[in-house]
Amino acid sequence: MLDGMLSYTSSFDPPGSLSTGMSCDMQAVFQPMINEDLEGEVRFASAVGPFSVPVRCTIKKCDMEVDNQFIDFGSHVVGQTVSWTITLTNKGALASRFSLDTSACLSPETSHVQMASHVSANTSQETSNPNTTSDSQSSSVSMGTGKLQAEEESQELSEHTEAAGPEAIPDTCVSTDVDAQMDQSNSDFGDISLGIVKEGEIGPLESIRLEVIFTPTIPGESKLDFHIRFSDLTSKPIPIQVKGVAVSVPVWVVQPSIDLKICMFDRLYQDSIVVQSRGSTALKLTFEVCPEMRKHMEILPKTGFIQAQSRFNAQLKFLPRISLSKDAMELFDEDTGVLEVPLTVLVAGQIVTFPPIQPVFQVFLRGEDCGGEAEPKTGPGCSCGAPKLLPSALDPEPLALDQHSHTNTHAVVKPVPFTIQAVVTSSELLFDRAQVDFGFCSVYQSVRSSVRLTNTSLLPQDFGFLGVPDFMEVQPNDGFGTLLPQETLEVDLIFSANKAKEYSFQLHCKSGINRDFPLSCRAVGVRPPLQLSHSLVQFGATAVGDRSTA
Questions:
Q1: Is 408 buried (19+), middle (13-18) or exposed (0-12) by CB count in 10 A?
Q2: Region label for 181, one of left (φ > 0), alpha (ψ between -120 and 50) or beta (otherwise)
Q3: Which UniProt keywords apply (predicted)?
């Protein structure tokens, strides 16, 4: 028996008494007739009491989600183009069409406020009385009469709106004023636009990448709110918020984040830093490296001039040393090897004006009075309360200022920031032991010993044993090969003494960057007093029970 599921049939023949550990089969057939989720249970009766088996049948659904609902482009220079990709994923089993909707339909609260403020210029047919038509027609007779009637209609409509309450405001954006405001607000988002894919179909268990492009043209902050809407009625629209800040500076770094990929210690890496100028005059550039990285990083030239409407190329030299973890503890993660170095370019004349944090007082260098009436409250100075700057040891006779003004803004030189990123790794090849002792070895025999060679780097490295003596053999591949990152290889060292003496030597393993890793070896060659004519005795094919000689 199944409750709530009429399109379910079952085929079950009671097997009678079931012994311990035995089982029987029941066939269940479900033929859906309606597109709804159904739940029920199959009830059984047994000698020990009733029990039931729950049955659940669900329809195919859409389960939409995005990896990021808030996109912050940060600050970018006017004229650049930056893109951001969001991933739309359908985790359900039902396909659906989607579209990107940038028409920000106002919420009921916002619509209520805006319609109340613009009610004098917009009359709705649903809320107006029958006299509205005649009043609006008569308003065209004269300008003065039209204005008076519009004010009366505005007052009547506002009273009607207040009496009806929020329920009388429609949820959809039907007002032409509201649509005009929406169009105007959308035009403000011209710096932020959507990519090529604005609509399409997403299948079950599929993902689609959507692109958002930020092209700042006017200094200031830009925002864009849009929704991802679906044809499936059960899927709610997904809101996406985008914002970015445009900064107007004449000089900027074309590539604000330079990635040097994976680098090795004690190896030189170089890259080019391209600086672009939109200014109309030549400007002086000064590249600054933080003190922690001056032993490992250098930019040449340190100072230069960039011409108007042109580019300037500087050379970045990066030579990480073993002391990097101690010199730049805050910039370098020793566990992961990630290095992130913030650098700046100082541009002479690139000034940004900010509002003052506190009032700017007049500074008098020699105590000249500005003609104020107030008495000084804090030490000697101007009679209007401005402090006095006394001569110092560095500047015993500062120049005197005859005039002063209380300004509202102050200007500072704005540096151009950029970042250098890299993953610094070791280039070491390590043996599992420092010395190999072959012991006593007969001049008629060979002794094999195995060592493990490990690549500690995050990059693959070539290796080879060079200058191997005649009495030594290295396998596999005669001592040459390639080690993958963090790979360990077992190397066989075969020693064959040619004389009865003590051997003490080194095997040199060199990497692809010409680093030498020595391995010390020692052995004692002996000549036994008993000598056999053959070291291998080989018998011919012998039948079972037979005898053969050699």
A1: exposed
A2: alpha
A3: Cell projection, Cilium, Flagellum
